[in-house]
Amino acid sequence: MIDVDGDGSVRIVTIERPARRNALTVEALESLETAIADAEEPVIALRGAGPAFCAGADLEVVADLDREGAEEFARVGQRVARTIEESPAVVVAEIDGPARGGGLELALACDVRVGTPDSTYGEPGVTFGLFGAWGGTVRLPRIVGEGDALEFACSGRVVDAEEALRMGLVSRLEDDPRTATAEIAANAADALPVLKRRIRDDRDRETQERLEAEAFGDLVVSHAADLDAVLE
């Protein structure tokens, strides 16, 4: 259900269940976690096979869960989202078609979200008494702001690509999201994880600035020859 490919600079991780709009079971989530955690490439592209990005949790599985099983399913999804967020690689969600529920939540954990003009976004769980529990209530307000997060999640409505861009659900729109991934992968492989760590750091400003300066110093030393070439 999870296909892994790559060229050495980008690991391509594809959710392969198009007949179910790439809905995820516990087993698929665990495979996705492994695919992300094992990556040695500086960039990871997360894609969905077929006409959807990801429908989120497989509701046929959820319907059969008791309370304990439901909580565990949520914890597994949360763990996968954290694995994406904490990966050293820059993770790009390449969103074409619908991103719903847990699929959107996994995209929110990615570092960059690039949609196509045909992409759509929604947290429809509230319409049948549920909500996204793979870290969505944590990340959504942080990314789009509390007001938009509450309206979006509580209405259960679907937004199109342009509104998603306005809200900040996606970083940019491209006819082919791989364009953005290629732009990122074309940069220095050792600088990308440093940038991710520094931007993701939520410690006090003094600590962040100290680590930023140290990281900058390390990169200046390691890229001295590149700097000389730029100045020639």
Describe the secondary-structure layout:
Elements: E1 2-6, E2 10-15, H1 26-37, E3 43-48, H2 59-62, H3 67-86, E4 90-95, E5 98-100, H4 102-109, E6 112-115, E7 120-122, H5 136-144, H6 146-155, E8 158-160, H7 161-167, E9 172-173, H8 178-185, H9 191-200, H10 205-222, H11 224-231
Q: CATH superfamily membership of the largest domain, which one?
A: 2-enoyl-CoA Hydratase, Chain A, domain 1
The average pLDDT score comes to 96
Number of domains: 2
CATH-scheme architecture of the largest domain: Alpha-Beta Complex
N-to-C CA distance: 50 Å
Provide the low-confidence segments as ranges: none
Task: Note the run of SSEs as H and E.
Answer: EEHEHHEEHEEHHEHEHHHH
- Based on CA atoms alone, the radius of gyration comes out at 18 Å
The name of the CATH topology of the largest domain is 2-enoyl-CoA Hydratase, Chain A, domain 1
Let me know the largest β-sheet. 6 strands, mixed
Helical stretch count?
11
Percent of sequence in beta strands: 15-25%
Helical coverage, percent range: 40-55%
Q: What is the number of E strands?
A: 9
